[in-house]
Amino acid sequence: VNFCSQCGAAVGLAIPEGEDRERHVCRTCGFIHYENPKTVVGCLPELDGKLLLCRRAIEPAIGRWTVPAGYLELGESVIQGAVRETLEETGSRVDVVGPLAMLDIPHIGQTYALFRAQLPQRDFAPTPESLEVRLFEPAQIPWEELAFPVVHFALRFYVEDLEAGREHLHLGIVRWSGTGRRYDPSNYRVEERLAVPLGNAGGAVEAF
Ligand SMILES: [Zn+2]
Predict the structure, then answer these.
(1) Pairing mode, if any, of strands 130-136 and 50-56?
(2) Half-sphere exposure of 189 (CA within 13 A, CB side)
(3) Would you put residue 75 in left (φ > 0), alpha (ψ -120 to 50) or beta?
(4) Which of 119, 173, 184, 193 has a CA 20 to 30 Å removed from the CA of 99?
């Protein structure tokens, strides 16, 4: 932030009264420009035991595989955002059936909220945001061609649950080691990991 979003004057770093950290504060009108993490929302859509992934048509990580996900917009819920992003990237309107993961990435100021979802039918297709959209058997997930480490960890937790026959909500901090390639998951670890069992073993989701 260099210039004030309210008056256009120069902005400088200062600790506002009553706060404990530096903010970008307008030197003219005093407006405080808060910067907070962004929420990324997305789905792991399933059909007949297969998982829908898309190959990114846009940077960063163009050409690599990911779950459909993107930034939450103002005015929408995390589930609405996850469904919208899935529609934009796969052309399919999914039904969210439960949470999968909430993963924080503090060094880039993002939090991912990812949901398990059902594809109502085989009506997916490439979109302006996806070069290719296809269903993968869990054993065929393209681990070496995934877009982001957070996607790698979310898919790993998903597969672990499948293999164990138990569902969890997975929480944790995706921490970069500080060296090595940013897109290589081997340079990351998940800290403060929690796997919260979901008690809804095969039952229907109740909506109120
Ligand atoms: Zn100002």
Answers:
(1) antiparallel
(2) 5
(3) left
(4) 184
